């Protein structure tokens, strides 16, 4: 299948992140993007669909914040990456404050999502990659791949978090709807729950969000992804969470995938969007499942049995040396099963 990306995606390079009370090198590194291009070849450049499809998902004030945050940080006399340290977790009034630290807190869910000089351009380029890959599917490709980086599934309409700034899968889903594809399924197989995607579509009955992920009782993002979260209002029943324990291997994973695919079939979508993360890999440095390379081929093959037009959007995966090979193994399965 064809793949798409934007060179700006290489230039988002935060230095470090908070980890268990100390600093570690930022895991979501530019080397991930280089590894993907190394394994798959350069692919095709993203086209620019403009800001409108981004604003169909994200609040204008949040988008303005993302564009300005690093400049405001520098203007405040700071060095390095913009990072927050105060968060309005008890739902304080929606104050539009000027101080950069107050803005960051108001638009964040965590302290692991720094804004560097190249962050906005990279996130924008990744969103355009998703829109370009979507266009390929809507104009006849059976499947296509957006090599998004930074990832997107943790950020919501008005907040960043979990290394995510713009929700690429959600932006593609809304763009597909604008082009007449109403019923959509988003299948999220990243190790972490896609809380942002879930939030965006929680009361939307036309977009199924089905996710297989590490149990949030033990893993980030903790506050979302529990099995009893099933959607609300019109969206009741259109969210499916399948949390699995740390240590899960393919024998434990495959039945959950079958359950998720049954839900996708029952939803009857005209388009499938896969949020693919390779951080379910046994050797992932920040995650705790035990999938091996060949399991990704099985995963891709199983997903391909849905026989749906499919957009694959890249999310996480932090074993950089294995990342390209793991994605390629998944794509082999997707192609072979079709
Ligand atoms: C993004 B994606 C502190 C822990 C924060 C954030 C994980 C984000 C994963 N260092 N971890 O779902 O792969
Ligand atoms: Zn992840």
Descriptive report:
InterPro entries: HDACs (IPR000286), His_deacetylse_dom (IPR023801), His_deacetylse_dom_sf (IPR037138), Ureohydrolase_dom_sf (IPR023696). Keywords: Hydrolase, Metal-binding, Zinc. Residues 46-333 form the Histone deacetylase domain. The chain has 338 residues and is of the alpha/beta class. It has a single domain (2-6, 28-48, 122-336), classed as Arginase, Chain A. It has 10 helices and 10 strands. It has helices at residues 30-40, 52-55, 60-75, 100-106, 119-138, 168-178, 195-201, 250-267, 293-304, 320-336, and strands at 2-5, 16-19, 22-25, 44-45, 143-146, 184-188, 207-214, 239-244, 271-276, 310-314. It has an 8-stranded parallel sheet, with helices on both faces. A two-stranded antiparallel sheet has the order 2-3. Helix 7 (195-201) links the parallel strand 6 and strand 7. It is globular. The structure holds {5-[(3-aminopropyl)amino]pentyl}boronic acid (OKP) and zinc ion.
